[in-house]
Amino acid sequence: MARLLPAALATSALIATAALAPATASPPPPTASPGAVAGSFPAAAAPGRTVTLVGNLQDELGCPGDWAPDCTTTQLDLTDPEGTAYSGVFQVPAGSWEFKFAINGTWDESYPGPNVP
């Protein structure tokens, strides 16, 4: 079973943000609120680092399937020149969704942590 961030959406906009902290930082718990999700994660500075919103909403957003960390359609945009903040706005149907953030298009690094019950 996966440890997930639940989000109940009453609107059709999902705003996702991710802040990557220095590798030595202890990550605060991810947060979620209706229509928005945010997380802060430890990360080493790395050129070309990507952050992707993954979950059971990806096929609604145009990915070929759900839980696909390599789908570039749900990849967040880099929002600062130092490579520590990412953001994305997605139009999804109202409902309840489960999601995480995957780093570099794989499950090698994902947040809010390992897939656990």
Features:
42% strand; 117 residues; disordered N terminus
What separation lies between the terminal Cα atoms?
5 Å
User: What fraction of residues sit in β-strands?
Assistant: 35-45%
Lateral strand order in the biggest sheet: 3-4-2-7-6
What is the count of helical runs?
0
The helical percent reads under 10%
SSE sequence, one letter per element = EEEEEEEEE
Low-confidence stretches: 1-12, 22-34
Q: Return the structural class.
A: mainly beta
As a whole number of angstroms, the C-alpha radius of gyration is 13 Å
**Shape, per Cα inertia axes:** globular
- Compute the number of strand runs: 9
Largest sheet: 5 strands, mixed
What's the mean pLDDT score? 72
List the helices and strands and how they pair.
Elements: E1 5-9, E2 13-21, E3 31-33, E4 36-42, E5 51-55, E6 77-78, E7 85-91, E8 95-103, E9 110-111
Parallel strand pairs: 2-4
Antiparallel strand pairs: 1-8, 2-7, 3-4, 5-8, 6-7, 8-9
Notes on the structure:
There is one protein chain. The model is unreliable at 1-12 and 22-34 (pLDDT under 50). The chain is globular, with a radius of gyration of 13 Å. The protein starts with a strand and ends in a 6-residue tail after the last strand. With 117 residues, the chain is mainly β. Helices cover 0% and strands 42% of the residues. A hairpin with a 6-residue loop joins strand 8 (95-103) and strand 9 (110-111). The protein contains no helices and nine strands. The strands form two sheets. A five-stranded mixed beta sheet has the order 3-4-2-7-6, with no helix packed on it. Strands 1, 5, 8 and 9 form a four-stranded antiparallel beta sheet that branches.
